[in-house]
Design goal:
alpha+beta; minor pseudopilin epsh fold; four-stranded antiparallel β-sheet; elongated
C-alpha cells in the first residue's frame, strides 16, 4: 500500500513569500496615500458644488434670495445655505455642513477673480498660502442668477487643495454670473476634456 505524504511550506518558502508581500506593500503605500489625499480634495470640492447647487435651487423654489456661505475662517470645508432675510417660509439655515464631516487634509481658498482662458503656464501649480477672505458667500436671486449684496465678502471661485502635499490634485469650483456652477480639474485642458478648467 502506498502512503500519502503531507506537503506544506518550508520555512524558506514562507520567508520568500513574506519578503515579496512586504515589497509590494512598500510600493503601494505612497500611491494609496496620494489616492486618499486626492479623494478628500474631490469630496470637498463636490460638497461645495452640491451646496451651491442647493442654494440656487432653493432660491428659485422659494422665489427669494438664498445665500451659500463658506463659514470656516481657517479654510476647512464648512458651509451653510440659508436666507439672508429670514421669513416664515425662508429660514436662516436650510442646510449645512460642518468641518467635522470633511477630511482634515482638504483646504478651500476663495477668490473673486475669474479663471483666465487659457490659463498661463504654471497658473494652477502655485501654492495658495491663505484661505482668502473667509467666511465668504454667494447669493442667488429668484431666477437663479448670482446676486451681489452691497456688503460682504463674495467669491466666484473656490480652489480645493491639500494641506498635506502640494502634489495632491487641485479642484476648482467656479460660479458664473448667470448662476452656472461647475467643478473643473486644472490638470485637464478644457479644449480636449469638458472636465478641464481652461
Amino acid at each position: 500500500m502506498l502512503s500519502r505524504r503531507q506537503q506544506g511550506l518550508t520555512l524558506i518558502e514562507l520567508m520568500i513569500g513574506i519578503v515579496i508581500l512586504s515589497a509590494m506593500l512598500a510600493m503601494a503605500i505612497p500611491a494609496f496615500s496620494s489616492w486618499i489625499r486626492d479623494t478628500q480634495n474631490r469630496t470637498a470640492a463636490e460638497s461645495i458644488l452640491n451646496g451651491l447647487q442647493t442654494a440656487r435651487a432653493e432660491a428659485v423654489r422659494r422665489n427669494t434670495v438664498v445665500r451659500f456661505m463658506l463659514t470656516d475662517k481657517d479654510g476647512q470645508v464648512s458651509w451653510t445655505v440659508g436666507c439672508p432675510t429670514v421669513t416664515a417660509t425662508c429660514p436662516a439655515e436650510i442646510q449645512s455642513r460642518s468641518a467635522a464631516e470633511s477630511g482634515t487634509l482638504a483646504k478651500v481658498t476663495v477668490s473673486a477673480d475669474a479663471l483666465p482662458v487659457p490659463a498661463p503656464a504654471g497658473y494652477f501649480s502655485a501654492t495658495i498660502s491663505s484661505a482668502g477672505e473667509l467666511p465668504a458667500e454667494v447669493n442667488f436671486d429668484a431666477l437663479g442668477r448670482v446676486f451681489t449684496p452691497p456688503v460682504g465678502a463674495v467669491f466666484t471661485r473656490a480652489d480645493v487643495t491639500s494641506t498635506a502635499s502640494e502634489e495632491a490634485r487641485r479642484y476648482v469650483v467656479v460660479v458664473g454670473t448667470g448662476g452656472q456652477i461647475r467643478m473643473c480639474d486644472p490638470k485637464m485642458a478644457f479644449a480636449t476634456d469638458p472636465r478641464g478648467c481652461s
